[in-house]
User: Fold this.
Amino acid sequence: MNKFFTKKLSIIFFIFVPIIFLWHPNWLGFLGAQPYWPLFWLLPWSMINGSINGLIFGLFLGIILDSLTLDGNFTQIPGLVICGFCFGRIKFNSDFLVGHFRYGLICSFGSFICGALIFLQILIKDFSDSTFLIFMPSFNNILAEVFLTGFFAPLICTQFLRILRISSRKAQ
Amino acid sequence: MLDIRLISTSRLRQKKKNLILFLILLLLVFVRISKGSIYKDFYYFISKPFWPGQFQKEVILKSKDQESLIKLNLLEQDNTRLRKILNIQESSNIDNISAAVISRKTGSWWRQIIINKGSKDGVEIGSTIIGPGGLLGRVKNTSLFTSSVTLLTSPESKLGVWVDRVKISGLLVGLGDDYPSLILYSKDADIKVGDFVSSSPASTLLPPNIPIGIVQSVAEPFKTKKIAKISLFAKPHVIDWVQILKVKINE
Assistant:
């Protein structure tokens, strides 16, 4: 049983991403926004398993998260698919500090792409005279999310990466 | 010798008596000058255990509640009667369901809460959700045990509302922040900061007269519209319990 859990840790974490996404702990928030949780799992997974796996699991995550959130105005799939694919092309860095900061920077960039794509979808789908009203709240959301994701990524991603590497080694 | 001793003892007693009398007199003068405050303060302390207690306060509050309830019922009956005469939609609060908030996403792009009552408990898509203060949103989706509620702050939310003071309808649009915008399709609308906004009597989606919020700021007229920011009464990020209104809306 223990061996099974160790081998399937990545999948267990994958199952828990939507739970954390739903949990939405307010005390971790900044300006009402939360870190973009799916990227913390997607980055280590894609780095270990490559672009195609990243793309596929980005799609899976997007489908699950879209079904949890109600908004029919936009979908998270494009952002997560692009991130999954791009993250798979990133090489590991042996330097401890550089590695940590890289994860922060990469996740911030990924969060910006996802946020910008969501914003564009809202703009296109809901275009009217009063569309300009959503500009400021949207910029606020994107920037707060980018900051928080980049802030937490070095800590969470390194731990995930370590656990997933051990898990994939044991699975082989 | 004995006589002399007796005389001196009686003088001493007399002196003592005089001193006591003088002190009493002094006390009375003080009482007179202070207008009996010392008595009143003393009475305050000794009568404290006999004051009307919590029980009596509760009895009074309970009777006040009953009085308010009776008044409310009378006003509701009156309201229903008048609504029937005017042939406009009516709402009933007989079938309200209480539910706890089990998940909330009140920031960023997603503005929704998930409550612990679903289709099993009779919650239907489109039901109105109210919390302490007023309207929170509408049920968008139900599962067997849970329901997802689109909040008024969600970019997806668009509802018809009513500004009571100027008797004008408008559209309340969520923007993805905590302050939805009220769009009035008349640039001459006399809307002011502090105006009360409630659900529109003409709305086919919501029961009428549910408090929503107050006007926080009014922007300069844009084309033929006037836009105002609304501060909501019900704060979704702190509310733990909500009410699901099972309303009959005559469309």
